[in-house]
């Protein structure tokens, strides 16, 4: 049980530092923890202030603190008081003497309470009225250490005190204290708030720490009644004596550090954030092996870090004179895989040396081997990656590969000789708005792989062997369109694609004879363009909607709109051979105006035919 408690305390108590008057703490606020079993410390502190430029008040206190066991701390202090005025002799006298005892319950994570009891022996001497408070007889305090570093080593600790005592006039006082402290390498930064009655103190300070010695420095701002402010300079040191120390049994931790993705050894630093007395060590860069010696018995948090990898924290239980083996697998900051494959002539199978580039990745281009055509690229970010393969005298081949974590993704790239070449270019847009689309075009049977449009302009350009291809155009949210294209030798072919989507409504500017359903000849071109949409997208069905203004009766307008919608459907069937099953003619009369019927312009807008895509057959 004793060894267990020692192991719990040891990571917490690495450095010894005392408060003014003894006991572990900062200047005016006590810590709920003790110095550690068997630790005897000597602390000396002085508080000085100048009333005017040539007058001085100073308190000097010397304290001894001893912890016979892990949860008990005893301390006592005494000292002197000094005063200097230019109009009188230098004055000095004894300070109060006091004895204290602290009981600690440190076994609760984060929340560590304690209780302090003390007895003060006052002297009938002259005190600095704005120095340390005068105490007489019994005092007692409740203490709490909220040690957030139990959750994460980099977090601070918060010390809280509530005390009761009597002064030399037998008046009772309540004191409140709080201190926030942050431990760094060899340093402890803290800020204190302390209040007794109408007097308040705010004291920032720093402690310079080593394994057996600490030096304290701070400036206390006093806020006194009637808005009087004074300042005190505080300095001191604590010495951890070699007497009465408890033997701490130790063990050893050995292991190796690997990359979690490649399972290969990596160079790393092994440190102990809750026990700064233990120096960080590094592992062997080739084997990944490390050995940490003289680790105190008990549970200790081990931190393993390596550049380019996430840190790992692992609590390890060390036993007396035993060796604990623990390997660490660090996750890389960027998860990667491996890309490999082969480039060859599509007609002869001969291996080729080609240039492989990876747009929008930041990866440098690589070349396949001229003898084997093989290539390999390690540490490729996971996910889809675009690849362009180029060689003079061959068509560029573009493809997309998927890289998986810690796996080898293999691809074979056949390049087609570009003896007879042609170029196709064009634009992919939204059929209704004309907006450019980010699309992918696949030329069936082409040796180049999919072609992507520029998402900002919708433009594409590709070099292909001459011939006839079925071009399939895909864009997210739109109906896939497949059209034939013919490429001729040494000629640039321009082919634009307009995509539609289910629910898209296109207003057709169709003119009819007055009060009739007879289509005027000048509207044939508009209807031919609409019919081309049906031909370019053979799997879609549409609703042809007829609409009128409000001139005439509702019944008349309803019938007129139905006859006009049917006239458009009949035109598609008779002139373009569209399957009637793909067409639905509906009249809505005057029920769906898109403008006011109070003006001629509004009525003209309401007299319309709409071409609505209602579904796509699977």
UniProtKB/TrEMBL annotation:
Localization, UniProt: Cell outer membrane
Annotated GO CC locations: cell outer membrane
Main location: membrane
Cell inner membrane recorded as keyword: no
Domain named OmpA-like: residues: 499-617
Source taxon at top rank: Bacteria
Molecular function GO terms recorded: carbohydrate binding
Protein name (Swiss-Prot/TrEMBL): OmpA-like domain-containing protein
Lineage: Bacteria, Bacteria division WOR-3
């Amino acid at each position: 049980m004793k060894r267990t408690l020692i192991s719990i305390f040891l990571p917490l108590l690495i450095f010894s530092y005392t408060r003014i008057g003894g006991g572990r703490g900062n200047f005016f606020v006590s810590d709920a923890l003790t110095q550690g079993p068997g630790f005897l410390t000597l602390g000396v502190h002085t508080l000085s202030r100048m009333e005017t430029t040539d007058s001085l008040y100073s308190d000097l206190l010397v304290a001894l603190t001893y912890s016979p066991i892990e949860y008990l701390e005893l301390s006592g202090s005494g000292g002197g008081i000094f005063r200097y005025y230019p109009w009188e002799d230098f004055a000095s006298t004894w300070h109060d003497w006091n004895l204290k005892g602290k009981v600690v319950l440190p076994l609760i994570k984060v929340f560590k309470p304690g209780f302090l009891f003390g007895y003060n022996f006052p002297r009938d001497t002259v005190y600095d009225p704005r120095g340390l408070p005068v105490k007489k007889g019994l005092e007692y305090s409740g203490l709490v250490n909220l040690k957030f570093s139990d959750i994460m080593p980099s977090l601070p600790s918060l010390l809280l005190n509530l005390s009761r005592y009597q002064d030399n006039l037998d008046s009772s006082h309540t004191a409140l204290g709080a201190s926030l402290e942050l431990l760094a390498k060899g340093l402890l930064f803290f800020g204190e708030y302390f209040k007794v009655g109408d007097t308040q103190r705010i004291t920032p300070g720093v402690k310079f720490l080593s394994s057996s010695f600490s030096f304290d420095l701070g400036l206390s701002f006093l806020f006194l009644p009637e808005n009087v402010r004074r300042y005190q300079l505080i300095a001191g040191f604590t010495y951890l004596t070699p007497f009465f120390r408890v033997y701490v049994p130790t063990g050893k931790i050995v292991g190796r550090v690997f990359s979690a993705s490649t399972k290969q050894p990596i160079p790393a630093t092994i440190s102990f954030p809750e026990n700064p007395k233990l120096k960080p060590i590094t592992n062997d860069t080739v084997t990944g092996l490390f050995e940490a010696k003289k680790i105190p018995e008990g549970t200790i948090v081990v931190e393993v870090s390596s550049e380019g990898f996430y840190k790992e924290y692992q609590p390890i239980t060390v036993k007396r004179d035993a060796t604990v083996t623990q390997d660490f697998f660090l996750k890389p900051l960027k998860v990667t895989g491996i890309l490999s494959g082969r480039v060859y002539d599509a007609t002869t199978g001969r291996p080729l040396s080609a240039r492989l580039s990876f747009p929008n990745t930041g990866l440098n281009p690589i070349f396949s081997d001229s003898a084997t055509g093989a290539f390999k690229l390690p540490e490729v970010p996971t996910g889809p990656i675009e690849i362009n393969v180029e060689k003079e005298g061959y068509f560029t081949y573009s493809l997309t590969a998927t890289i998986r974590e810690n796996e080898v993704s293999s691809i074979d790239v056949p390049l087609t000789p570009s003896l007879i070449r042609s170029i196709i270019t064009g634009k992919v847009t939204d059929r209704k708005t004309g907006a450019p689309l980010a699309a992918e075009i696949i030329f069936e049977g082409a040796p180049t792989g999919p072609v992507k449009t520029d998402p900002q302009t919708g433009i594409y350009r590709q070099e292909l062997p001459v011939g006839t291809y079925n071009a399939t155009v895909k864009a997210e949210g739109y109906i896939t369109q497949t059209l034939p294209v013919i490429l001729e030798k040494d000629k640039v072919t321009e082919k634009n694609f307009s995509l539609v989507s289910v629910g898209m409504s296109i207003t057709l500017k169709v003119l009819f004879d007055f009060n009739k359903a007879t289509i005027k000849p000048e509207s044939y071109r508009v209807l031919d363009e609409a019919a081309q949409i049906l031909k370019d997208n053979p799997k879609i069905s549409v609703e042809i909607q007829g609409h009128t203004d409000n001139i005439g009766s509702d019944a008349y307008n309803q019938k007129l709109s139905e006859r006009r919608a049917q006239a458009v459907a009949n035109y598609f069937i008779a002139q373009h051979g569209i399957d009637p099953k793909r067409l639905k003619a509906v009249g809505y009369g005057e029920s769906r105006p898109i403008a006011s019927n109070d003006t001629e312009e509004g009525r003209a807008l309401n007299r319309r035919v709409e071409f609505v895509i209602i579904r796509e057959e699977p």
